[in-house]
Design goal:
Layout: H1 18-25, H2 34-46, H3 50-60, H4 69-78, H5 82-92, H6 98-118, H7 123-129, H8 135-142, H9 145-160, E1 169-171, E2 177-179, H10 183-199
Antiparallel strand pairs: 1-2
Amino acid sequence: MSTFPQILSDEKVNERHIDFRDALYQLDTENLTSENTDVLIKIYKTTKQIDYRNRILKLLYTHNSSDLQEFFEGAYKKERYLDMKIYGLRGLALFSNEKYIEKLVNKLKLILAKREETTPYNYQEYELLRGKNALPFIVDTYNYNCLKELLQQVNEQYERMPDAFKGHFTTDENGEITNLRTPAENSKLITAFFNQQKKN
């Protein structure tokens, strides 16, 4: 899309309107200007739609305008889903040194370890963290030891899950999901696992 959609700047339009949603999801990150990013940041800060925040993070995390540093710092602190924290971290890494990133990653490791205890079968989060636009991208780009250790921890926790929760989907370089099985196949595997658990 070569021009920024006016509907996204119109405060009178309900964000749940299908045209608003379509405009946001049809945006191309390469055509955003600093003025456009301000509009997206405003939407991010006011929306109640988690998927909108997710989309905006992915639109902005390749932009290295200095005024985005504060945005990514806020996003990293705000988000509770680990994949969205990683998107915030990806954007923040454009402006931060290894020491600062390591400080954030050390906290992430603790959160991630706790996730394994509280939600041991949360395969969706692991797959998103392992996606080509998430941790593997940041590791390849910056090669920081702390990031390598975090990715290793993600992979180890993923591998400790039962096979029924592995290989359902993956994500590409743009964060788009590719299903590796049909929803029916996913459901069958997971249901069979829990049925077996009841018998044991």
